[in-house]
Design a protein that fits this description.
Radius of gyration: 12 Å
Structural class: alpha/beta
Helix content: 25-40%
CATH superfamily: Glutaredoxin
Strand order of the largest sheet: 1-3-2-4-5
CATH class: Alpha Beta
Strand content: 25-35%
Number of helices: 4
Order of helices and strands: EHEHEHEEH
């Protein structure tokens, strides 16, 4: 299940996760974000228990969005041990996202 993260719970949920974490930075008005969203939902089921998949609305969460310099969306940040391990900007096929998750496991 995909978890919605925000400025208030980001550090606790993502940075302190015991498994690799993915954060999909998106916005309601973003067409490519709507293409990526169902892929994240599918991957969350496939990686349940192995990786944490989350989404963050950039319009509602300016602090974290600014902290990580998110300028284009969708942007997916991949975290391992509380540090950014990889990054994907723009809409990509599900297999690309899955490969990046696999590299962190």
């Amino acid at each position: 299940m995909v978890i919605e993260v925000n400025d208030a719970n980001f550090d606790e949920v993502v940075l302190q996760s015991g498994v690799p974490a993915l954060v999909d930075f998106w916005a309601e008005w973003c067409g490519p974000c709507r293409m990526v969203s169902p892929l994240i939902d599918q991957l969350s089921e496939e990686y349940d228990g192995k990786a944490l998949l989350t989404k963050m609305d950039v319009d509602s969460n300016p602090a974290i969005t600014s902290r990580y310099g998110i300028r284009n969306i969708p942007t997916i940040l991949f975290f391992k041990g509380g540090e950014i391990a990889d990054k994907q900007v723009g809409a990509v096929p599900k297999t690309v996202i899955a490969q990046k998750i696999d590299a962190l496991l």
